[in-house]
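Loading example: each entry is read as two labelled lines plus one structure line.
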Amino acid sequence: MNVLVNKMIDAKGLACPMPIVKTKKAIEEIQPGQVLEVQATDKGSVADIQGWAKNTGHQYLGTVEENGVFRHYLRKADPHEVKEETKYPHTITNEELQTRIENGNDLVILDVREPAEYAFGHIPSAISISMGELDSRLSELKPTDEIYVICRTGNRSDLACQLLDEKGFKNVKNVLPGMTQWMGSIEKIQ
Amino acid sequence: MKTKVAIIASNGGLFDAYKVFNIATAAAATDAEVAIFFTFEGLNLIHKQAFQQLPMPVGKEHYVEGFQSANVPAIPELAEMAKEMGVKMIACQMTMDVMHIPKEQLINGIDVGGAVTFLDFSKDANTTLTF
């Protein structure tokens, strides 16, 4: 599995607590919303990274193991993300979207989270274009399509809806509350 | 509010040192506020000479190899790391006096204080540990 990250650190061969100590230092060097990859061989790091994320408020995305090397993915918390109000008026609930998918409708679902978040679980037919890239990749979308925009908690997707609206996409819906509470089927990149 | 971790280090062996510094650095890396009170033989853990070669427990010397192969950092490195991450280290004045250890023999950047200095920190700590 190849995941796009903003920073990668190598903690291979290091014992506890070094992977955590290095993770802490590295997360301070990236911007909120960015993704960090931590490579480690310490088996304890699998549980430790999750505990670390839970206690520091950063988002644990997942771990991939390959030949004894663990690649942990973390997204730096963005304090604004929780507070921002949703402003884009056209929304749809997770449940409504799930029903429409299950009824076999051919829908355009746009997932605006970071590629690493997408990789660890997304709605099967969803397209991945992160919020940061959206402006430069608009040509991949059709302004006439009905587009369902989703992110983790509904804030980035709200901004994405506003951007699309400005650019002439008039049939856009923000999916709320977003992937954190998605009960429908999920696909992962292998 | 930040999680507070209060640790008492009262033993001076190599195993004791790892227990103290691993927990302390891991907690500091997880954004906790950490203080260690070094008392009695625990002072060895921050003693400029002694912490270079802390003793293994008798009969456990064969673990030396394990420490090497697990690539565990040396105690002076861990102590430095703990300091860098803001772990507050308090050397016990009373035991320094009893054991004739002047502050100059201990690593730089530590505080010297009495029992109340530690108690003041630990009174509202979320976790208190003794090693």
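The mean pLDDT of chain B is 94.
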